[in-house]
Design a protein that fits this description.
With about 725 residues, this protein is mostly helical. It contains 29 helices and 10 strands. The strands form 3 sheets. The chain has a 4-stranded parallel sheet. It has a 4-stranded parallel sheet with strand order 8-7-9-10, sandwiched between helices. A two-stranded antiparallel sheet has the order 1-2.
Length: about 725
């Protein structure tokens, strides 16, 4: 009777504790759901098959996590280990309630799998602790909060093994290789007797249950909410091209503002991003701004917005984000504390890049103050202008993020509010946009000089659409290719190659306008849409069917963003794509040998935005004598040159110049040529070689210029004369 009574007490206690824990869990999740509902509704394309496929690959296949092999394998072990151990946890709970365990076929094998899994999780969690506190990886936060889960997992694994060990003593089980660890624990405590073993069994049983339930309640109140939110976030991700920004309806008469000026202006999908963040720091680890001492850190961007949403959401919904609420202090809210000396990270390092100054400053300045969340300005108290304008929109952060967060669109939305609602933009950027608006180019040079570059091209014909109305390919030269002295050489080289390959092409001449990439990335959606519609009207006027451009920024804008505004049935190519086709078709023959050691710099807007990595390299490999060498950071993980997102037209005033860091990375492989396929990158890399005083032995060249040398054999001599 005593045993039966104890089992009923155990059962009811289990129901009460588990039921209350599940209630708290549901409560905290529901409150965060209400916070997300404060955001703007967003319509998602269905495309369920594609969404589900991506979610399976990234969640079950851990695709993004394995970009970092060491931490990726560690996470795979923990991820699948916990899935496997849920069956073990259920088995232990059932045993503690008086049953014999789960009726699983091959139960002994099941037990062995459980113990092996526990051992592997011990190793994985130990390695996780070592990465954080032994290697002291700069991207990983340290302290008691980031360590809670490590302690919980360690404790959970110990309780599993000791519960199984004392169970073996109670039932007088012999040593078994199907349960080696618990058998050794049983052997070590064999002298305690059955009664004491029973007591210890229930102590560890309850410890296991309470840790498990504590973990359940803790998860949605911490960064580990990603365990639930990340799969949803990946499933709801954008299926449009990654290079396409969401448009603003500027004719919406009911719109009170444009862009994001307060946390509720973000979409609900963007808010899910906040809660999906695991604070692994991979985004910050690759960010060119963070790497060179700017205040922007993509990880802190998301974390700060999450904290602010949680605190302001609690006020707007009157629902506490914490359970049990009495255990947490409600005084004050997080805000960015502006130091009197400005936001200087005091960046200095013997290495090429270093994220520690940025992370240290972010940690120091994001703290709890007396100001209430509802009284804070999103731009100023949460996000600073320096952070917003430091982004190069390279998307390396998004490419690395294992939970599918999108950082760039949030920064662009903040810029849109600054530009469209407050008229606030750095002076150099404002000047560039005014020049684009007045003359169609960032320098303010006469719009009627746009085709002047064709006058000095050794007699090679470069017809306009009026002169060659039956053209097959429109060469969209772009502002850099039309006006920038360095990029003019690329335009001429490309035109010469097109002529040699007998491509029937034409240019718009003075009818061409800026593509609008720069205004859009700087937040001036109005100017972008005006330029976009004017260019599309011109394309339709001349029945354009195929466009080629040497600028990845223009290429991305025309290919991925113009179709939304009416550009239909037009094929858009980057010049490396077309040149690669012409070489492979035999229409261009790189007959001259170039004895060069060339490293190729991947343009962000060509690579990560449009997945063009092989064509430029294939062109280089087709040239006799060329040795192609890869930088440590190349292809998907190539570092930005520092010019994207409008930064081409603005001065870097903090830390190290991004283009210097990228040039130093290129110089590590001892090239004779640093090649690129973007006028912005070319300018930044050439400036980098000059700053490093290596321009005499290391040239910066566009792919078209290198191919021109190989086809005609005159480029080197021309460059020497130019010097």
């Amino acid at each position: 009777m005593v045993v039966v009574g104890w089992q009923w007490v155990q059962f009811f206690a289990f129901l009460i504790v588990s039921g209350y824990s599940l209630y708290l869990f549901a409560k905290v999740v529901y409150h965060r759901y209400l916070y997300v509902k404060l955001g703007q509704p967003v319509t998602m394309e269905k495309q369920l098959k594609e969404r589900f496929k991506t979610a399976v690959v990234q969640v079950l296949g851990q695709q993004k996590l394995l970009k970092d092999k060491k931490s990726g394998i560690m996470h795979v072990v923990i991820f699948y280990g916990f899935i496997i151990l849920q069956f073990g946890a259920l088995d232990i709970i059932v045993k503690g309630l008086g049953a014999k365990g789960l009726p699983i076929p091959g139960y002994h094998v099941f037990g062995l799998i459980q113990e092996i899994t526990v051992f592997l999780i011990f190793l994985a969690v130990g390695y996780a602790a070592y990465r954080r506190y032994g290697e002291k990886l700069a991207r990983l936060k340290r302290g008691w909060k980031p360590s809670i889960v490590i302690f919980l997992i360690f404790s959970l694994m110990f309780t599993v093994l000791f519960t199984l060990g004392f169970e073996r003593i109670i039932h007088d089980m012999d040593f078994s290789w199907y349960a080696p660890v618990s058998s050794m624990i049983a052997a070590a405590f064999s002298g305690v007797g059955t009664t004491a073993a029973t007591v210890f069994f229930y102590i560890f049983w309850w410890a296991h249950l309470l840790i498990l339930l504590s973990f359940l309640i803790y998860v949605p109140q911490s960064k580990h909410f990603h365990l639930m939110v990340a799969p949803i976030n990946i499933l709801l991700r954008k299926t449009e091209p990654v290079g396409k920004l969401t448009s603003l309806d500027l004719e919406d008469e009911e719109a009170e503002s444009f862009g994001v000026g307060k946390i509720e202006d973000f979409t609900q999908k963007q808010m899910i991003d906040f809660y999906a963040c695991v604070e692994c720091g991979r985004c910050t680890n690759v960010c060119p701004a963070s790497n060179t001492g700017k205040i922007l850190s993509p990880m802190h961007l998301i974390a700060k917005l999450r904290d602010h949403l949680t605190e302001k959401g609690a006020v707007l919904t009157s629902k506490s984000p914490w359970v049990p609420a009495y255990a947490f202090s409600e005084s004050g809210s997080h805000s960015f504390q502006h130091p009197d000396g400005g936001l200087d990270t005091n960046w200095s390092s013997d290495s090429i890049t270093n994220i520690e100054p940025t992370i240290s400053l972010q940690k120091m300045l994001w703290s709890t103050g007396e100001k209430k969340a509802e009284d804070m300005n999103l731009i100023g108290d949460v996000m600073t202008g320096e952070e917003i304008w430091a982004c190069t929109t390279c998307r390396n952060c998004e490419d690395q993020c294992p939970v599918g967060n999108e950082h760039v669109d949030k920064i662009i939305d903040l810029r849109r509010h600054l530009v469209l609602m407050e008229g606030s933009v750095p002076q150099e950027g404002q000047r560039a946009m005014q020049n684009i608006e007045r003359q169609g180019n960032p320098w303010g040079i006469n719009r009627n000089d746009r085709a002047k570059w064709t006058e000095d091209i050794d007699g090679i014909p470069v017809p306009t659409v009026k002169e060659n109305p039956d053209f097959d390919v429109l060469y969209f030269v772009g502002s850099m290719g039309s006006y920038d002295n360095r990029s003019l050489k690329v335009s001429r080289a490309f035109a010469r190659l097109l002529n040699e390959a007998e491509v029937n092409f034409a240019i718009l001449g003075n009818e061409e306008k800026n593509s609008g990439d720069t205004p859009r990335r700087m937040g001036n959606e109005l100017l972008f849409q005006e330029l976009c519609m004017e260019n599309i009207a011109t394309f339709q006027k001349y029945n354009v069917k195929k466009i080629v451009t040497a600028c990845p920024h223009t290429f991305n804008t025309l290919k991925n963003e113009y179709p939304e505004f009416g550009l239909e049935g037009v094929e858009v190519l980057h010049h490396t794509e077309l040149l690669d086709q012409l070489v492979k078709q035999g229409r261009l023959s790189p007959q001259y040998e170039l004895n060069e050691r060339i490293t190729y710099h991947d343009s962000c807007y060509l690579g990560r935005y449009n997945n063009i990595y092989d064509q430029p390299r294939d062109i280089l490999r087709a040239i006799k004598g060329v040795e192609v060498v890869e930088m440590d950071r190349s292809r998907e993980n190539g570092m930005c040159c520092g010019a994207g997102g409008g930064m081409m037209w603005m001065e870097e005033t903090a830390g190290k110049r991004v283009n210097i860091a990228r040039t130093e990375q290129a110089l590590e492989v001892n090239p004779t040529i640093i090649s690129s396929a973007c006028p912005f990158c070319l300018t930044m890399l050439e400036d980098g070689t000059k700053s490093k005083e290596v321009e005499e032995r290391v040239r910066a060249r566009d792919i078209a210029e290198i191919l021109e040398e190989a086809v005609f054999g005159v480029g080197v001599e021309k460059d020497k004369k130019a010097m």
